[in-house]
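> @MW can you paste both from yesterday?
MW: sure, first one:
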Amino acid sequence: MALKWVGNLLGGKSSHRTRCELAHAAPIVSDYLLRWKKHVQTLAERLRGIRQLYLVGRGSSLAAVGTGGLIIKESDHFPAEGMGSAAFRHGPLEIVTAQTFVLAFSGAGRTRELNRRLVKDVRERHGFAEWAGDDSSLPALRFGAGPVAIRPILEILPVEMITLALAALAGREAGRFESATKVTTTE
């Protein structure tokens, strides 16, 4: 939210409009989190037996996929990769197996169909693929519709639930660091 606020101020956009857009985030996040335990349970069922995890998207969804890949590795000690949907097609699609899970973020209207086709293509290769967005068929991956400006805030929610699901499957505490230290203390 802070980055959106600063970006709009630097870009000369109306602070009133920014405030109105951001005001949608809290109620949508709150509504999603009311069912967090069910979301974690559902995702744990989907992720059981998975050995490769990819988060893919385009445009502003790259924030969620990049951050998501990092926090899954950090919090769960589970290999995960966040990348652009097109980049996924030009490499990792070749190694999709029945132990691969791909979470595709719906993204903006112009590229949604490209992302949908990627989900279909992963499934045709016997991998598991799900769709995350305001129209996902899976409630754990569906967050409410809001202004495009708050999409990066909403898209991180399913990733957070995935971290909890993977931790539950591994019998560990999500987010417990064992090797990592603050970068500022070592570099």
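MW: second:
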Amino acid sequence: MNNNFKILNFKKMVIMLLGMWLLFSTTIITLFLKNPVEKAVIKMVWGLIFLWIIVCGGLMYFFRNPIKNIVLKIPLPWYIKFVFFTIILAFIEEFIATTMTNMAPFFNVKIGDAYITASTNFWDVIFFHSLINFIGPFIFWAIVLKYYDFSPFSAFLIWGTTGILAEVLLGGPRHFLEFGLWMFVYGLMIFLPVYSIPSAEERKAKCPKFYHYFLMIFLPLLFVPLFAWIPLIIDPNHPQPTHFN
């Protein structure tokens, strides 16, 4: 019991430190920005932080047990429910982010001058730019969870770290400083789905080795092409990386 209490306190401390860095770093950036476009972008980021991380993240945490009970009762194989659950949460996050991009006039700039998504069209964003790239990794996670018992907290940190690396690969090393933001943005897509799957005993899953945690940061990226090729076939001339360049 004492050991469980220490683990719980450790998890809370990690989340608190990540949250403190997120709020501190975003506040510092906000205070020093002068350019109207940059100020509009940071306001969009604040909107994403509030709606996705604070509101949605808070609801996911405080209602995790009732949600888990509902998910477990759905008469489908757990791995299918897991993949669909992660997709739904990614949908919600991208909907919020796209809404922020569309609020550019509210932040005193024209649409296209400031943005945090590749397009103002939600379906375009998820099908050509973001969610389409997540489905393969989510399927890979479902396969791995059949054999290895990654906790919801470790999945949050691992997928969050994968998200940080993805953002760095797409946008450059400066995104390393935004690790608090990306850890929550990506980690919250997978925390509750992992929490809502059957126990390790029911899945016959074993405890991961230390190197499995490291491998799971990188291996899901190999599964991005599983579905990412589809929009390239449909529209090979689709604007990349954004519609605003």
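> thanks! The mean pLDDT is 94.
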